[in-house]
């Protein structure tokens, strides 16, 4: 039975009263981190987690993509540890402008550069273990990026897991009218201006108060969770692109989403689920749960991540299909 490591954290540290090294040793996890240079010569922070058991065979690769104003460390690495303990090699990177990667904090004016970074890193990981099934795991904005990766790379992935994916932005979270209508002008003349959202995101993303404090105590957390104007406009464009092209999503996938998600409306996720051509697709809408599912009370966290790990184990155990022809290139979002 899974017990997500979030339950061992406290409001000051994801590792509780242990050091990071002690935490990894306790969970028998090998961890490695480094930097890569992307096509724009920016330093991008990368990480790996795997079971510290030379006798066990890896079940597969899970490539994780974090959400906006987050990073691959802190809370996200607890999920990485949970997946690695289940027998997977987990890899992740900090998106441009996030965590330890280069870039203006929280500024993503063109999603294609981020997608390119992810593909560059994840392809290098898959090339080292070509016989292992490979899965994408995207959370919030990372879910949207993971969909874009799958639409671009087709059947080079064996499956996709989407948690609170940004398939559409909730009306409660969008900039207030008439600001949304003025976004194109703001993005052109003041691209780094921080857009005012209706309410603080974290206060409506993590249900448990102590987890909100834990997120706030992250030394890498940006001072403002408000996206710059060009970034906010790009998010709206990405959601529209996904809405128009989700019919071409053919990989097996699992979507988990909170019904009371304040940031990314579950109805948009439902639209993607219903429209996708994949013959192996599952949608789980959890009543009463919020945007960040790791921010739920313990019994909810266990339910959600039990669902995720069961899906991963089942799909990793299936025979790896023969490579299919690459899809025709699609217009960039």
Automatic annotation (TrEMBL):
<protein>
    <recommendedName>
        <fullName>Serine aminopeptidase S33 domain-containing protein</fullName>
    </recommendedName>
</protein>
<feature type="domain" description="Serine aminopeptidase S33">
    <location>
        <begin position="57"/>
        <end position="297"/>
    </location>
</feature>
<dbReference type="InterPro" id="IPR022742">
    <property type="entry name" value="Hydrolase_4"/>
</dbReference>
<dbReference type="InterPro" id="IPR051044">
    <property type="entry name" value="MAG_DAG_Lipase"/>
</dbReference>
<dbReference type="GO" id="GO:0016298">
    <property type="term" value="F:lipase activity"/>
</dbReference>
<dbReference type="Pfam" id="PF12146">
    <property type="entry name" value="Hydrolase_4"/>
</dbReference>
<dbReference type="GO" id="GO:0016020">
    <property type="term" value="C:membrane"/>
</dbReference>
<dbReference type="InterPro" id="IPR029058">
    <property type="entry name" value="AB_hydrolase_fold"/>
</dbReference>
<dbReference type="InterPro" id="IPR000073">
    <property type="entry name" value="AB_hydrolase_1"/>
</dbReference>
């Amino acid at each position: 039975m899974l017990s997500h490591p979030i339950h061992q954290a406290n409001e000051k540290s994801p590792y509780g009263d242990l050091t990071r090294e002690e935490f990894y040793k306790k969970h028998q996890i090998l961890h490695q981190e480094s930097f890569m240079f992307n096509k724009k010569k920016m330093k991008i922070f990368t990480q790996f987690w795997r079971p510290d058991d030379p006798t066990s065979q890896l079940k597969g690769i899970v490539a994780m993509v974090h959400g906006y104003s987050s990073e691959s460390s802190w809370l996200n690495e607890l999920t990485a540890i949970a997946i690695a303990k289940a027998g997977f090699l987990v890899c992740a990177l900090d998106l441009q402008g996030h965590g330890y990667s280069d870039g203006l904090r929280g500024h993503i004016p063109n999603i294609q550069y981020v997608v390119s970074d992810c593909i560059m890193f994840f392809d290098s990981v898959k090339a080292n273990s070509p016989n292992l099934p490979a899965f994408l795991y995207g959370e919030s904005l990372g879910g949207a990026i993971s969909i874009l990766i799958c639409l671009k790379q087709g059947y080079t992935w064996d499956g996709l897991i989407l948690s609170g994916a940004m398939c559409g932005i909730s009306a409660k979270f969008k900039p207030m009218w008439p600001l949304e209508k003025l976004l194109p002008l703001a993005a052109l003349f003041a691209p780094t201006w921080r857009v005012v959202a209706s309410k603080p995101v974290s206060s409506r993303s993590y249900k448990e108060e102590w987890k909100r404090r834990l997120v706030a105590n992250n030394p890498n957390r940006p001072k403002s969770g408000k996206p710059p104007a060009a970034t906010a406009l790009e998010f709206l464009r990405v959601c529209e692109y996904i809405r128009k092209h989700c019919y071409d999503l053919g990989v097996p996938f699992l979507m988990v989403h909170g019904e009371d998600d304040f940031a990314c409306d579950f109805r948009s996720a439902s639209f993607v689920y219903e429209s996708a051509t994949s013959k192996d697709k599952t949608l789980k809408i959890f009543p009463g749960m919020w945007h960040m599912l790791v921010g739920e009370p313990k019994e909810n966290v266990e339910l959600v991540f039990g669902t995720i790990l069961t899906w991963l184990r089942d799909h990793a155990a299936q025979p790896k299909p023969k490579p299919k022809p690459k899809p025709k290139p699609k217009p960039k979002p």
